[in-house]
User: Fold this.
Amino acid sequence: MTAVTRPVVRPAVAADLPAVMTLERASFPSDAWSESSMRATLRDRDTVFVVAERSQGDGDLNGYGAVLVPRRADADVLTLAVAADARGAGLGRTLLTALLDAARERRSPRVFLEVRDDNEVAQRLYTSVGFEPVGRRPRYYQPDDVDAITMRLELTGEATGSTSGAIGPTGGATI
Assistant:
């Protein structure tokens, strides 16, 4: 496992799409998003999409995440992935914190997400920051027929500031 001590989290740009798709396919081999869906997410003005570089400016990504966050409305974590060789070092939490900070900055009252029923590591991460299970979507993840657990986090307080400066005042990528 490669140690990830100080990840460089920044807004995603169009040039990141090939590396994001490589990570997407490696992380979600049976139900990866299509490139066109990922590109649309990158372009969406209501979505904050961040990436983590192994070293600043090298373009070698070891994680990414996106949250749909219309101003003053509920937010939805759309995707979050960390490269296999970077897992277990806190990068998932760093990316999630950036997404939650964006939701707080846009005054979202709560954040929702779906997580695979068989992904206990992700469930522990989400629970550790305050997400609670609120529902189940049977057979949501196809073609694996795996249920999704819907989770919710009620947002309170200010952004942590831990990554907000790294992704700019709005956190959105303009592509």
